[in-house]
Amino acid sequence: MLMLLADWLQQFEPSFRVFSYLTLRAILSTLTALLIAVLIGPRMIRWLQTMQIGQTVRDDGPQSHLAKSGTPTMGGLLILAAIVVSVLLWADLTNRYVWVTLSVVVGYGIIGFIDDYRKVVRKDPKGLIARWKYFWQSVIAIGVALYLYASQQDPAETALLVPFFKDVMPQMGLFFIVMTYFVIVGTSNAVNLTDGLDGLAIVPTVLVAGAFAIFAYTTGNINFSAYLNIPYLPLTSELVIVCTAIVGAGLGFLWFNTYPAMVFMGDVGSLALGGTLGIIAVLVRQEIVLVIMGGVFVVETLSVILQVGSFKLRGQRIFRMAPIHHHYELKGWPEPRVIVRFWIISIILVLVGLATLKLR
């Protein structure tokens, strides 16, 4: 929006051309989302407290979590508002990748909002019934996948990039639709499962989004893409603005979500952020790298799958409690120790993911 205004003002003052530079807009996108989150955060927390929208804590979990009962949740609304406003202000709104990403942000945010609303306002512990949650997640993911497949303008848009192998880039064909579906839905639910401790999910999300900003920039730049031997996809450059907006909004939310949390993001935040990371990975053709950089999300999800599978098949549990972050709490680790160590692991995994740009 402001980019269009700056383009119009260039005819009167050439210095407005500076706002066409992607790097400047990325910085402004980060700062805008951060300021929105920090400035609106206190008011939203007070409003959530007034509306008695508080977290319900399971009594079969770590006893230290019982003190968190009643802490305001649905703070993900703050994150999504900061992201959407920042992107609308600083991104090139003629870029279809921007609108595809925003559709996932808003669509999955609505699903999460309905789930949270049923849990904390209508006091329905089940929230949105699982099959309906997955149904609507699937509808959005399949719709996006079909659109991307039908609107592709370059074979590279549906090719699978294999990390560390520069000459391995098979065409997926219709399997692209299947891959896109599982990446979006899978990442959405993985982030949702990870969101169980103060700040545990938001920092890995910020780290992965920041890394994807680099992937989007290099993929959308003809010189860098040629140098790194990766496909040149010009539309991905504007995803830098989306990624930096996620970084800014996430850091602003962390201001209030750090231990001990003043507010939780709820499903409205975790489902939307996970789905957004998934669609960005698809658009920049880095689905496999997402598995590497989002390793914490992957392990959290696998711990739940293994726990449920083991209990159904053998009648025994592998972990003291799943997701795995609760397992370590029940082993006696203080919550801050679990959180920070998972953050450290995320930093390492993101660095490994970034290394795939050059090590090919």
TrEMBL record:
GO terms for biological process: cell division; cell wall organization; peptidoglycan biosynthetic process; regulation of cell shape. Its EC number is 2.7.8.13. Keywords: Cell cycle, Cell division, Cell membrane, Cell shape, Cell wall biogenesis/degradation, Magnesium, Membrane, Metal-binding, Peptidoglycan synthesis, Transferase, Transmembrane, Transmembrane helix. It is an enzyme of class 2 (transferase). It comes from the Bacteria. Its main location: membrane. The chain crosses the membrane at residues 20-41, 73-91, 97-114, 134-152, 172-193, 200-219, 239-256, 263-284, 290-311, 338-357. The keyword Phosphoprotein does not apply. GO terms for molecular function: metal ion binding; phospho-N-acetylmuramoyl-pentapeptide-transferase activity; UDP-N-acetylmuramoyl-L-alanyl-D-glutamyl-meso-2,6-diaminopimelyl-D-alanyl-D-alanine:undecaprenyl-phosphate transferase activity. It catalyses: UDP-N-acetyl-alpha-D-muramoyl-L-alanyl-gamma-D-glutamyl-meso-2,6-diaminopimeloyl-D-alanyl-D-alanine + di-trans,octa-cis-undecaprenyl phosphate = di-trans,octa-cis-undecaprenyl diphospho-N-acetyl-alpha-D-muramoyl-L-alanyl-D-glutamyl-meso-2,6-diaminopimeloyl-D-alanyl-D-alanine + UMP. One of its GO terms (cellular component) is plasma membrane. Its cofactor is Mg(2+). It is a multi-pass membrane protein. Mg(2+) binds at N192, D267. Catalyzes the initial step of the lipid cycle reactions in the biosynthesis of the cell wall peptidoglycan: transfers peptidoglycan precursor phospho-MurNAc-pentapeptide from UDP-MurNAc-pentapeptide onto the lipid carrier undecaprenyl phosphate, yielding undecaprenyl-pyrophosphoryl-MurNAc-pentapeptide, known as lipid I. PANTHER family: PHOSPHO-N-ACETYLMURAMOYL-PENTAPEPTIDE-TRANSFERASE, PHOSPHO-N-ACETYLMURAMOYL-PENTAPEPTIDE-TRANSFERASE HOMOLOG. This is Phospho-N-acetylmuramoyl-pentapeptide-transferase. It comes from Paraglaciecola mesophila KMM 241. The lineage of its organism: Bacteria, Pseudomonadati, Pseudomonadota, Gammaproteobacteria, Alteromonadales.
